[in-house]
Amino acid sequence: MAMRGLRPIAEIQYLDYLIYGFSPLTDDVATLRWRSNNLQAAPLIIRTRGHRLEGVWHSGSPMSVLLGGLRGMYILVPRNMTQAAGMYNTMLRSDDPCVLIECLNAYRLKERVPDNVGEFTIPIGIPEVMREGSDITIVTYGACVRIAEAACDLLKQDGISVELIDVQTLLPFDRHHRIVQSLQKTNRIIFLDEDVPGGASAYMMQEVLEKQGGYQYLDSPPTTLSAKDHRPPYGTDGDYFSKPNVEDIYNTAFHIVHEAEPGRFSEDE
To answer: In this predicted structure, what is the pLDDT of residue 62?
Structure first.
């Protein structure tokens, strides 16, 4: 349908199930423009949802699988449904295919509906600075953005200023190198996500430190904060302790800043 002029939106109920459709995506959709020397296009939108659901199933975040196998497609990771709507509007005007991963637990939250909900667009490959700060940069996406915001509030109480960046899209990633501009200011960085260790967090780190040259601005070791290397146990506690939580982010950021500037804090902190 996509190759014949239509713009289908294919529904995959949960991100975990994407593996059942992985072969045609990686073999056919992702390679079509390259194989046809840009003569053919398939503007297919794959709509799915994941992140932070409790339980053994439907709680995975296999971003490393997608990043490794779907080069040639966009991978969009909106933090809420408003951002998702803008990304849908963008992709419905595009000739490129994408996987758009909605935040499953964001269905439980209320958002203000924009007046132009069917018209506004979100640029692809452009991160959004959620909070400006001067002490440390936190780079994340999707459901982790809300968790990071809560941690930023706690860190602010201790006088630590966080620059929080939502990458919004993993493929492509930060086309204009906005993240390294933040690192030039803060000189410290955390890459946060809920994929397994060595997955999307390591991917983001390589993009910023190696490809963008961010290593030269570091005053503290770069840090990745990811999920544990196992499936989340069932229940709220299983989700909480298996994936990065507010306390994890607070403790990691505080330790980095405290190690670099111990004189800023009292002995009981």
So the answer is: 82
